[in-house]
Known about the structure:
This protein is mainly alpha-helical. The protein has helices spanning about 1-5, 10-35, 45-60, 65-75, 80-100, 105-125, 130-150, 155-165, 170-190, 210-225, 260-280, 295-310, 315-325, 335-340, 360-375, 385-395, 420-440, 445, 450-465, 475-480, 490-500, and strands at about 230-235, 240-245, 250-255. It folds into two domains: about 1-150, no CATH class; about 170-345 and about 420-500, Neurolysin, domain 3 (Orthogonal Bundle).
Amino acid sequence: xxxxxxxxxxxxxxxxxxxxxxxxxxxxxxxxxxxxxxxxxxxxxxxxxxxxxxxxxxxxxxxxxxxxxxxxxxxxxxxxxxxxxxxxxxxxxxxxxxxxxxxxxxxxxxxxxxxxxxxxxxxxxxxxxxxxxxxxxxxxxxxxxxxxxxxxxxxxxxxxxxxxxxxxxxxxxxxxxxxxxxxxxxxxxxxxxxxxxxxxxxxxxxxxxxxxxxxxxxxxxxxxxxxxxxxxxxxxxxxxxxxxxxxxxxxxxxxxxxxxxxxxxxxxxxxxxxxxxxxxxxxxxxxxxxxxxxxxxxxxxxxxxxxxxxxxxxxxxxxxxxxxxxxxxxxxxxxxxxxxxxxxxxxxxxxxxxxxxxxxxxxxxxxxxxxxxxxxxxxxxxxxxxxxxxxxxxxxxxxxxxxxxxxxxxxxxxxxxxxxxxxxxxxxxxxxxxxxxxxxxxxxxxxxxxxxxxxxxxxxxxxxxxxxxxxxxxxxxxxxxxxxxxxxxxxxxxxxxxxxxxx
Length: 503
């Protein structure tokens, strides 16, 4: 590995010492996955303590005088290759955080987010935001402190956005949404005026057998050429993916006993995340560039697989024999009718179930709330009202309870403030990949209907996106891979073509 990727002696020394940090990250990841899947609920207190102590231990080892000196020496080295430069960049970013964030702060943050996740799950079960409110208040307070520790030029939210997308600022996100949202509103109005538009679809109310639904998800993943020796599927309250290297990713979904697309779409979405991680360069797994550096690029993969492949008519046709097994009544629906169900457009309450047009209103709402919470413009106690008002303003719908509204996402419980904008940015990037992929391979509509076609898509993505891991930034990969800059043109063209044909 080192002969091919790493030649510099200092970089080699850094990587040898980094193995301890990688081990702690690996074990922390397992703790987090277990906490959100199978951990007994009464274990929450001690799990929070363990993860808090683990966070402090990571910081202590990272800030070891000899390790920091090696990083500083590496910064001055000349002639480093791209892999070595990326190692230095990733370690500098981590070093900034560990130097600026006090150990007691990291300990409190890890402990609080563990407790917050448990409170969020309890609040979900009782459909009562007041259970989660005091923990969320603490999380937001810590987020403000984190922003102040890290520093920022214009807005405290900038410091947190940068964690998920290097260099991303509040102004950039505002500039991204300002011209984008009106064009989406225009297309949404076009769809709503169509004679084919409907607020409901009867397939949403069709019940299914959970065990058969599990089998459908399994068969769908097999059709997607999943490697079961690298990726496993489990159940959680909110679907997520955890990657522990190129040979290990864990994905989850959920089951509602009706509206089977919720579970299927979540499974395909998380598969997209897992595929990305497992198609990075495996030899880099135990290094600082062994994962994926850009959350937006990550979301470009999950959204591409969920919407552009998973909702494609040819894909639905291919898995149709498995779909109709989950409920006898589904045999009464044709592939065409199921496709209508998959691609339905309508303003709705739940982000993860939103169509491709209205999805970005959900993200804008969360962005505005996070931005205003960080600046102190709004308060946690007022969030249910603020949330409902924004949903009425942007989507014309109002949640009837907390689970439909303020409690639907787990991100804030995990302290992931600044993550949401990457969903929209990633989605528009997915259309850039689609455009260039189809130039090289032909239309996804054809490829999505067979395992062989799916394999071609996966190989193209590996070559143009996945193999880079965290070696380059999102903007660098777009330029290096397909010579493009971030923009919404390809995505808006894709939406207009697709939905004006359907509606």
